Amino acid sequence: MMSQQSKRELLDTVRARYRSATRSQKSDQIDGLVAITGYHRKYLIHLLAHPSEASERPKRRRKRLYTLPAGAGRLGPSVAGSQLYLCQATGALHGGVRQCFGASWSATT
Questions:
Q1: Is residue 67, in this structure, part of any structural domain at all?
Q2: CB 76 within 8 A of CB 89
Q3: pTM score, whole prediction
Q4: What are residue 72's phi and psi, to 5 degrees?
Q5: Residue 99 is part of which domain span?
Q6: Lower CB density within 10 Å: C or N end of the chain?
Q7: Mean pLDDT by 10 residues, the chain (109 residues)
């Protein structure tokens, strides 16, 4: 069984000969490649006719929708304040504020 990298290299070397071959020679080349790689005939025809451009194409990155101000932590003060409010509001139902913030909460308050 061949690795993906070796299959890619094999197809890169065969591609030039495949494009300049006659129809019967192309059929013979595809038969040999099917035996070697285990790929389906139609998939091989596609790979030989269309060179891979996925590795050359740069990845597209999404635009940032927002940025945090310099020096701000992961949660800003307004988010931390609302988290505290929610923990205090639901403390009676879920075992208290210590469960939200951990054991260090009781030492600081």
A1: no
A2: no
A3: 0.47
A4: -80, 145
A5: 77-108
A6: N
A7: 87 91 94 93 92 66 71 57 66 54 50
